Every structure is written in structure tokens, then in C-alpha cells.
Amino acid sequence: MDIVRDTENNEMQMVIATIDANGEIARVAGEVTPLDDDINGVEGEVKPLDDDINAKAVRFWAGATFENRETAPFRVTQDGSVVMSKATVEGVIKAISGTIGGFEIANGRIGAIPDEPNVDYGGMGFTNHMMKYSDFDDLNKSHIISAIGDNVNPGNDVPMLARFEYIDNKNGDELVSNGIALKVKCRPGYQHPWYVQRALDCDGNVYGIGQRAVFDDGYIGKPFINIIEEHIGVAHAYFFDTIESSLSNIRLPNKAMIDKVTGKRDITFLLYLQVGWLGNNNKIRILGVDNGCIFDNNCNRPNGGYGWYEMAQGDSMILRYYNGNYYTVQYRT
User: Fold this and answer.
1) What is the edge-to-edge ordering of all strands in the sheet holding 25-33?
2) What are phi and psi of 257, to 5 degrees?
3) Cβ neighbours for 206, distance < 8 A, ≥ 6 positions apart
4) How remote is the C-alpha of 99 from its chain's centroid?
5) Strand partners, 319
6) Could you write out the three-class secondary structure of 13-63?
């Protein structure tokens, strides 16, 4: 510390010198006016120099010379602000606002910063209510939305937990690009009806507008006595392309089997059976069972007992199940 006395004004100037890593001197200066004529001692009124009252004046720093202290990677300014451009921080961090890796933090939201000012937030965003990605093209009335949360359709009377939209209208009503809003896939290497293997499991009403294409590959092959019983939880359409014996029996699932799959719900469904070209006269016999009887269009059990039908090549059948009974919708031979 160097002390220089100003005899004329009875003041002294105090200079504090520090040496940085490069061996250069950094100076922080101020004036001290003693309380009386005796300037001995340390009491007095401190008068900062002009630079000292600048809120952005760098008070201490690291990683730069004295001349470059205002751009040092670590610096603390007069107003208490801290800059650490090479920081590694661990532990509890409480950030009210700012940016991390191009994501903005503010107002309970973490998300991408808009590319242009005064536009709606786009890109990926997170709040305490939802996770959302959006991309809007107002000029062409096109947009992409992917969102999951407690209500991803605010302002609507019906809460929505998930939302996936792909709207491409750049050329009027003409589709100009490919797009899939949601793809769900579950293809285990070993598929077995005893295990739950479902790409989509819906419990509730299903509503849709648009075109629909469903391609069944649930069961295509030979008939076995329990083939429908085993696969009723995953397939309601059966195509038999081979019948090796002159007559092969197939049992229909009874009510207990249906209840096990559906959780004893009061349900109904259609069962589709088709025999393909065989090149022979072999047949299959569809057997009704106890609590799984077959009824014809007059509500009689065809061929007595629990009801049964025979099918040869080219024959088709549609049955409607309800409450332990199968009602004939179509039987063509």
C-alpha cells in the first residue's frame, strides 16, 4: 500500500497495489480525508475516484491482464455482478432467469429462444405442466405440435394429456410432403399369446375422422383345435391357407376366456374366419362350446348341441360375440 499526502488540501491518497499472475500491477485508488488535522491513523472519510463510482467497474478478476480485466473470464464488478465464462458448478443451483445451451429460463418455463423477436415461442419447451415442441408457419397455415402434459390444449373445455399434430398446407389443400404424427411399434422377436405384446392399448372411446387402412397379420396359417382360444386377445381375423387333414376342429373361446382378456367387461366384437384356396376337399369345423354357443340367423344352434359350422376352401364366416354367445352375421359356402 502506498500513501501519498496532499499538504495543500490536508488529504491523503491511498493506493492499493496487487500483482496478477503475469507480474503486472493492478491499481485501485481512492481518497481519504482525515476527521481532523492529524492525518496519522486510519480514520477518515473515503472519497472514491470517478472510476470507483462506476457500477460496472471491475473490482477483482482472474484470467486476464489489468488492461483486459473488463473481458476477463472471471470478474466481479462494483455492483456485485459476477461473470464466470469458464465455470464448473456443482451442487444446488437456483436460477430465476437466463439461458442454458440456447434454452431460455423464465416464468416457470425452460425452452428454445425464438429465432426472431416478437414471435411465439417455438422449438422445445418445458414447464411445470407440460413438455412441448412446436413449429408454426402462419404464412402457409402449417404447423407441427408434439406435447405431453396435464393439459396440452389450453383454452379448450376438454383437457388433453397428449397432442401430436402435423399440418402441411403449403400448397392449399394439396399434400406436398410426407408426415406421420404418431408411430407406435411393438414387435417382439418371439411372439406368444400368453404374454402381453401390444403396440397400443386403449381403454375408452375411440374417435376419428379421416381415411383408415388396417392390415391384419395376426393369424395366417393352419387350423388347430385351440388356435382362436389362444389368439383371441390379439387377433379377431383368421385366414386358413392350409388344411392338412380331411376335417380339422376349431373351438370357439368360452365366456371365461373372453372375460379373462377383457377384465369381465360387458363387450361385443366381430370374429372373421376365411378359408383360402386349398386344391382339395379338406374342411374345418367351427365348434360352439358351453358358454360359447353358436346361433344362426333364427337364433337356433346350427347342427344341434352347442352349434357348429363346416368350412371348405373359399368359405367365409363372420360371427358377433356377446355375453357367452356367437351370433351369425355371415356364413357363405
Assistant:
1) 2-6, 11-19, 25-33, 45-48
2) -70, -40
3) none
4) 22
5) 271, 328
6) EEEEEEECCCCCEEEEEEEEECCCCCCCCCCCEEEECHHHHCCCCEEEEEC
19: number of Cβ within 10 Å: 10
pTM of the model: 0.65
Candidates 294, 283, 205; CA nearest to 252 is 294
* Residue range(s) in the chain whose domain bears CATH number 2.60.120: 219-332
What's the confidence (pLDDT) of residue 157?
80
52 within 8 A of 30, measured Cβ to Cβ: yes
Residue 231 to residue 237: CA distance in whole angstroms: 10
| Residue bearing cell 407406435 | 184
The amino acid at residue 192 is H
- 166-184 mean pLDDT: 71
Cell of 42: 486510519
Residue 252, amino acid = L
For residue 231, the surrounding DSSP H or E stretch is helix 227-231
**Fold of domain 219-332:** Jelly Rolls (2.60.120)
Q: Does residue 4 carry a pLDDT above 50? A: no
Q: Are strands 293-295 and 325-332 parallel, antiparallel or unpaired?
A: parallel
N-to-C CA span, the chain = 111
Rounded CA-CA distance 121/133 in Å is 10
CA atoms of 18 and 27, how far apart (whole Å): 7
The proportion of the chain whose per-residue pLDDT surpasses 70, expressed as a percent, equals 74
Select from 283, 296, 284 the least CA-distant residue to 326.
Answer: 296
**CB 64 within 8 Å of CB 72:** yes
How many CB atoms within 10 Å of residue 258?
23
CA-CA distance, 69 to 76, in Å (whole number)? 10
Per-residue pLDDT reduced to its tens digit, 30-67: 444 555 554 454 454 545 555 556 788 898 899 999 89
Which three cell numbers, joined as nine digits, stand for 280?
382339395
